[in-house]
Task: inverse folding
């Protein structure tokens, strides 16, 4: 049985990969100690059943420790989902996203030649939309330190993979939503306020203008897409998105519709002053992913319903207490 190594397994997407991956030898890697029942420090979404997996707490910046792990486990497949977050400073982003990825690829080449590595990247690499949809040939003009570090990681890891004889593909994941959405993400912010109203808080929410658009894809669909990509022979880069453009105000409208169906009163919206947005528009070109037989199965409404259930069960609130 092929060993599958998942870096960042205790992260949001990593936990859904663990839940939805076919039964096989799974090994998780992450900087934090193993914390069963949690993801990124928050309780798992209700009903999420995880596949059995072994776990190794490991900082991927430690090249010697990474090399020892790869030599011991000899994974035929690596899903590389670990990395720095949007709030990390540039130097740390480079270490976590670029240096660590290259060390991982080189170690695979030494100990498991012919292994396959799927890197979790981001659709924000493309920057502002010059033509829609943003397919894999769209120019890359990242506008944040995080996106710039992910592009640099893609380029450096691809070069290292070619030299090391490792099969490499970078999955450019667009805007993930659904159960477990972090409370710092705008859909999480909106759902938390709606859930509070359903739990008896005054029917008033505060939000800035919701005029930008994004491509939202459910985290469960992301996990399924990553499995298809991993099991294919596609190389280079591939987008992971829904292919649907959604004006963000639609997120609020759907959440309010769901809440009204549960007896929520009319809600007053306090519109806050606008804040600068990194990107005005995003929509993924997903023809390459569709060629693998992928089609999202969760609608935006279903994703938001699952997110709202999280809030009502306190999964998001737990992170703020």
Result:
């Amino acid at each position: 049985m092929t060993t599958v190594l998942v870096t960042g397994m205790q992260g949001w997407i990593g936990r859904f990969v663990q839940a939805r991956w076919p039964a096989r030898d799974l090994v998780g890697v992450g900087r934090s100690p193993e914390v069963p029942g949690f993801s990124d420090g928050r309780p798992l979404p209700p009903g999420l059943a995880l596949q059995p997996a072994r776990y190794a707490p490991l900082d991927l910046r430690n090249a010697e420790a990474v090399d020892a792990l790869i030599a011991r486990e000899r994974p035929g497949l690596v899903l590389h989902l670990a990395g720095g977050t949007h709030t990390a400073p540039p130097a740390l982003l480079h270490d976590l996203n670029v240096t660590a990825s290259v060390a991982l690829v080189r170690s695979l080449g030494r100990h498991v030649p012919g292994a396959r590595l799927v890197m979790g990247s981001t659709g924000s690499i493309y920057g502002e939309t010059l033509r829609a949809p943003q397919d894999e040939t769209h120019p890359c003009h990242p506008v944040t330190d995080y996106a710039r570090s992910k592009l640099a990681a893609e380029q450096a890891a691809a070069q290292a993979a070619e030299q090391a004889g490792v099969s490499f593909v970078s999955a450019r994941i667009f805007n993930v939503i659904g159960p477990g959405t972090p409370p710092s993400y705008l859909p999480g912010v909106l759902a938390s306020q709606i859930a509070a109203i359903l739990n008896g808080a005054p029917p008033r929410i505060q939000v800035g203008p919701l005029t930008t658009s994004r491509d939202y894809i459910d985290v469960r669909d992301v996990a399924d897409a990553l499995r298809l990509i991993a099991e294919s022979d596609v190389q280079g880069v591939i987008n992971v998105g829904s292919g649907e453009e959604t004006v963000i105000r639609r997120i609020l409208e759907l959440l309010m519709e769901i809440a009204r169906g549960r007896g929520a009163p009319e809600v007053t919206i306090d519109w806050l002053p606008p804040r600068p947005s990194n990107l005005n528009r995003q929509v993924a070109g997903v023809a390459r992913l569709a060629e693998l037989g992928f089609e999202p199965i969760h609608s935006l409404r279903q994703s938001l319903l699952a997110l709202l259930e999280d809030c009502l069960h306190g999964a998001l609130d737990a992170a703020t207490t």
